[in-house]
Amino acid sequence: MELRHLKYFLAVAEELNFTKAAEKLFISQPPLSRQIIELENEIKAKLFIRNNKKVELTEAGKYFNQEVIALFKNLEQISLKTKKIADNVSGEFTIAYISSIYSSVISKLIQHLKEQFPYVNFKLFEISTTKQIDALEQGKIDLGIIRSPVKSPKIKSQLWFKDGFSVVYNKELIQINTEEEIPNLKDETFVFFNKDYAPHYHEVLLELCAYYGFKPKVVHESNNINSIVQLVKNGLGISIVPSNIAKNNRDLEIGFIELKKVQLFTDVSLITSKEDDSEITKSAVDFLLRFSEK
């Protein structure tokens, strides 16, 4: 049995038409039919029911189809991992992060990695938590930095730091100096993350407002933390952001008040593939754990 037999089988199984499958494979129909017959003879099982009207998979064919699809997917992952092993010397290493945690530490990480692995091309992408998890499972990124907990058998997660929350406001428009004054914000306009984009984070913000005795009037939404801070600066409302944002913001027009009374935090985690034991990944994780935002 050769890989071409399996590729031909998948084409017929997908099209359920020998003519269309042959066109897709850029071969004529008779050789395709012969290859399928060879395959059936080798595994001693009839895979297709053929007649003048239609082509159908047998029960054995349905099972074989599922297993072959899984086999090719596994081959693709093996190829990706092989490439990544080779990329320890040269190649690409992709790091993803969410907008609410970007800081100078990540910039320093890239500098650190470039010094250690000068022939590797390091790439940074701002990607949502959900998309990071999908990308990591598919081998499209090497390291992710997220907020939400991960439930995936393919991913290893390590806590980077716990982040609290702070109210952010325009100093010229809002007069507030202490956490005790937070309930006075009940009539203000709020800018929040879109609840469909970050449902867990959205619920936490509502819970925070409830702790201070009010339900926020959310008028504006965004999927990017920097856009939210800019909207606040432009006078379109106030917001509640991770305290890490306050630590890394030096804009004198914006004020931050950390919410210390309520014990609500988010875990900022580093995620990698459980199968990834490369020196680059280890170096990156070790660096971030050593220079965390605690």
UniProtKB/TrEMBL annotation:
The keyword Zinc is assigned to this record: no
One GO cellular component, as annotated: protein-DNA complex
KW Transcription (keyword) present: yes
An annotated Gene Ontology molecular function: DNA binding
Alphabetical keyword list: DNA-binding, Transcription, Transcription regulation
InterPro entries, sorted: LysR_HTH_N (IPR000847), LysR_subst-bd (IPR005119), WH-like_DNA-bd_sf (IPR036388), WH_DNA-bd_sf (IPR036390)
Domain HTH lysR-type residues, every copy: 1-58
Pfam families listed in its UniProt record: HTH_1, LysR_substrate
Family stated for the protein in its record: Belongs to the LysR transcriptional regulatory family.
The protein, known as: LysR family transcriptional regulator
Organism from which the protein derives: Flavobacterium hercynium
